[in-house]
Amino acid sequence: MNSNEELKNLLDFDLLSKLVVGIGEVSEITGVPTRQIRYWEEKGIIHSSQEAEGTTRKYDYLNVKKIILVKELLDDGYTLDAAAKKVGDRMKLINEAFAKLAQRSE
Amino acid sequence: MNSNEELKNLLDFDLLSKLVVGIGEVSEITGVPTRQIRYWEEKGIIHSSQEAEGTTRKYDYLNVKKIILVKELLDDGYTLDAAAKKVGDRMKLINEAFAKLAQRSE
DNA sequence: CATCGATTGTAATTAAGTTGCAATCTCAGA
DNA sequence: TCTGAGATTGCAACTTAATTACAATCGATG
Questions:
Q1: Residues contacting residue A89 through CB under 8 Å, at least 6 positions apart
Q2: Which InterPro entries does the record associate with it (chains A, B) (predicted)?
Q3: Residue of A17, A15, A38, A18 whose CA lies nearest to A27
Q4: Strand C contact at CB of residue B22, distance < 7 A
Q5: What domains are there in chain A, each with its CATH number?
Q6: How far from B18 is each of A28, A30, A60, B53, B58, CA to CA, in Å?
Q7: Closest to B21 (Cβ–Cβ): which among A19, A68, A98?
Q8: Which of A16, A94, B40, B94 could share a disulfide with B45, CB 3.0–4.6 Å?
Q9: Which of B1, B2, B3 best tests the A interface by mutation, with the highest count of A CBs <10 A?
Q10: Mind listing the pLDDT tens digit for each residue in A25-67?
Q11: Is A99 in the B-facing interface, judged by CB distances under 8 Å?
């Protein structure tokens, strides 16, 4: 049994993907003000799942992770666009790894 | 490098533990009506993190997992109390495994 | 000092969640 | 069939959380 299988037994990836939190929670977790999160979203850097206009935005694990990474780079002196690009590249890898793990859990 | 270390590199357990969702979300995920979730909580079977009276309940991964398991047993014919006990035992193991994984991530 | 990127403030509105009280539903046993 | 305990549900009145739109601010750079 390889490590991924062990992992799948412990962690329910299907559930993980459904754990979507509100913007207030994201703000508390990341330290980024809600206003700023919405701004990044306006700019197309973050993509929450918002069913329709006027309904509340929801953020999954990967969304929150991305916000954390962007914030780290901003704090480090990057411009928003540069940070977004850099994080985008890294998120690709994380997304792929997750996709693999989530595969057989359906 | 063992599987747990690989896992830690991929999954941010600190973040996972902070992903707490509202009761409406839990209801959608699990198929258990919000009213019923509150009832189970009243009975002491579920323990959401509710800062104070009147504020909204929040449920983390393990809470939601527990609700899913309880529901499965109920659907299978168990009484609520019996299901709660059975699930409680299983959650102990899951909790321990998570505690181990969450350790060095701080 | 004007411009641009980045962020922030706020009012008015809607969505989501809370409690408490009471009603209902199920079903095993007298 | 009646009944009582366990389990669930309905709902009104209320509070908290989140939404949008418009405008203001703030710092760095040419």
A1: none
A2: DNA-bd_dom_put_sf (IPR009061), MerR-type_HTH_dom (IPR000551), MerR_fam (IPR047057)
A3: A38
A4: yes
A5: 3-103 (1.10.1660.10)
A6: 9, 10, 11, 21, 10
A7: A19
A8: B40
A9: B3
A10: 999 999 999 999 999 999 999 999 988 888 999 999 999 999 9
A11: no
